């Protein structure tokens, strides 16, 4: 509210008084339909004030907005552009233009009131579409930029490229997993793998050692038995070569007889 002015008048007899009040303010479209009231209080009104009400009717230029039925138009598809206009008084039928001129193809571009329908879209339909609305107060307009997308380019990022990317990623992961698994298996099974590789060598060496031990034991047993059977029945080389010994049998007998008396002088010949 910018200003409220009061005016007081009275007649010549000073019995009747008239008071006037003026309200001045700058209204906008949001004030349309608002209610303004004026209230008068006086002692003669018996405590019941007098109130006058007025509904504001604000006229304003149209507000314009374009709504598209397709956010990603492709070749061969259709699109509907709706021009919403709001103003007071009610705007006249809107005017559709393309790139500052008339619609180039009336057969495919059909205007029905505030609605523009375009069928069988192609690349020639790309451009800036303007919707203009007006009323006695003024006019207003808004624009919509139409880009018709190629069908192949649309399908490529949604179907082909994800498939190829998925395959590549899967292959890479598989190779990485295989490499990691192989390394893990080798590190884990390294002792067993070495044992498996040297197992035949150990068996061969063990067999050879067993044979050598067996032969050695057999030799020791045979040698022991041989020595036990011939214990104390040999003469030295000097006894065998003496000229006074009549023969070997006599020497052996004499040796056995002397063995009884002096065991410390017993000699063995192997």
TrEMBL record:
Residues 62-147 form the Ig-like domain. Gene3D superfamilies: Immunoglobulins (2.60.40.10). It is found in: Membrane. Keywords: Disulfide bond, Immunoglobulin domain, Membrane, Repeat, Signal, Transmembrane, Transmembrane helix. InterPro entries: CD80_C2-set, Ig-like_dom, Ig-like_dom_sf, Ig-like_fold, Ig_sub, Ig_sub2, Neurexin-like. The chain crosses the membrane at residues 203-223. One of its GO terms (biological process) is homophilic cell adhesion via plasma membrane adhesion molecules. PROSITE patterns: IG_LIKE. Its main location: membrane. GO terms for cellular component: neuronal cell body membrane. The keyword Signal applies. It is a single-pass type I membrane protein. PANTHER family: CELL ADHESION MOLECULE 2, IG-LIKE DOMAIN-CONTAINING PROTEIN. Belongs to the nectin family. This is CADM2 protein. It comes from Alca torda (Razorbill). The lineage of its organism: Eukaryota, Metazoa, Chordata, Craniata, Vertebrata.
